[in-house]
Amino acid sequence: MSWQAYVDDHLMCEIEGNHLSAAAIIGHDGSIWAQSAAFPAVKPEEITAIMNDFNEPGSLAPTGLYLGGTKYMVIQGEAGAVIRGKKGPGGVTVKKTAMSLIIGVYDEPMTPGQCNMIVERLGDYLLEQGF
């Protein structure tokens, strides 16, 4: 299966009538493996900051998580595994795998829990597969 198919079929899937607004699979080095059409253009320093937070949990909390220039307030996650961010009625979930970052962006009516489930389920699967 291509990386784009993982984005199109698994991350952008429908869950209880809702969809993520954007999603991507990005390598630890910031290279884009696959993304949805609406995914924002991310800057290398944004990916570097996310990777730093996985290595030093809590480092993003004071400044916020930036994705495509949009600032998200960092909320509870799982140290070294998942970073969650909130902005108004939407937010972002980032799941780290052995080789990539799985990123899902959502807006209402999707709930944070629905976004977390979609992103983390694919991330767990890719971890099991060695990616």
Describe the structure.
- Helices cover 29% and strands 32% of the residues.
- The protein has 131 residues and is of the alpha+beta class.
- It has one domain (3-129): Dynein light chain 2a, cytoplasmic (Beta-Lactamase), CATH 3.30.450.
- Strands 2-1-7-6-5-4-3 form a seven-stranded antiparallel beta sheet, with helices on both faces.
- The two termini are 13 Å apart.
Reading off the top of the CATH hierarchy, the class is best stated as Alpha Beta
What would the CATH topology be?
A: Beta-Lactamase
Number of domains: 1
How can the largest sheet be summarized?
Answer: 7 strands, antiparallel
- What's the multimeric state? single chain
CATH superfamily: Dynein light chain 2a, cytoplasmic
The count of strands amounts to 7
Backbone shape: globular
Order of helices and strands: HEEHEEEEEH
Overall SS class:
alpha+beta
Give the neighbour order of strands across the main sheet. Answer: 2-1-7-6-5-4-3
Q: Whole-Å distance between the termini?
A: 13 Å
Function: Binds to actin and affects the structure of the cytoskeleton. At high concentrations, profilin prevents the polymerization of actin, whereas it enhances it at low concentrations.
Subcellular location: Cytoplasm, Cytoskeleton
Family: Belongs to the profilin family.
Organism: Artemisia annua
